[in-house]
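pasting for the record
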Amino acid sequence: MWMGACTSTIGTWMQILAQSWLVYKLSNSSVYLGLDAFFGQIPIFLFSLFGGVFADRRSRRSLLLMSQVVQLICAFTLATLVATGVVRVWHIWCLSFTVGLAQSFGGPAYSALIPTLVDKADLQNAIALNSIQFNLARVVGPALGGITLAKMGAAWCFTLNGISFIAVIATLLLIRPRFVPVNTGESVIQSMKQGIDFLRNKEGMVGLLLLAFLSALLSFPLITFLPVMARDVFHGGPNTFTLFLCASGVGSITGALLVAAIQTQRGLARRSLTMMIALGATIAAFGACRNLTLSTACLFAAGASMMIVLTLNTSLVQMYVTDAMRGRVMSVYNVAFRGGMPMGSLLSGFLIKRTSAPVIMLANGILLVVLAFYFLFVQRRMSKL
């Protein structure tokens, strides 16, 4: 499963790099770039709760297979549009929305499936290992994508992404999960309400959901607007953008390895909030810095901090939920976390148009530090988890 997911994610990051560069090239607009991220993420915000219900009443493997097939078709469609020279920004937006819709059902199924492949004692390491494959792909994918984009064009990046989905489809057909959900006959709304009630009644979980939303809203624009920073601030091309993505990816792998090395499961929330302070500081430093080497180092540190925060927060939710409730609970958490991404991209895109990308990066970083201090010293319920 790890090998298949890693191969597919490498292809996805090749497409992310080429698609971001293509949208900015076609539109020359940070708003359009933010809208592309918005259309890709908003379906996850709107439909993940339904995806979570289905993940708890149908085969999670089957849901994932359907999700991968839809994304494969979208990748090949975009490759065809680019290769024939008819691609427009609105085409890309429509395909981004369709991919996001597929992920809104595949995401909760994937989050619920992974813990059923390991024992509970290995759960945190399994989540960290999954983060490692994702961020290893963030390094390899942009590196391969940058070379492919420069030498062969965007259409080949999208084609290779489509081919990469075959790997994860093959591994999904091979695995045998130890837990298969059973349809209890409850209504979709009733099942959804149970997941929400579980998180609402668990001390500290509401704060964790709020923190997930706000941290994504403030930190995700760092990745979305790297093309703007690479071209308009550092006056570079695809190679500079690739360097930035790779630096962030290597940092994320380092952060995931550090989480895997943690021996105790106590005090995870406090560790997460401490690392959020580091995340905000490095994002602010990236916004203020004009030296390419130092900026790359800031992205490495931000990538490591972001991954530690994400992995620890996900572990906190996964540790307190049963297999039968896992899809619904994780879908609520994903709505909070993934909902912050499109909102942050859209808001930052409009603000960048009025000010500049460095100013917004600096402001987002400072707000993250303030947010972490608030949950550490004022609203302290979550920090006790």
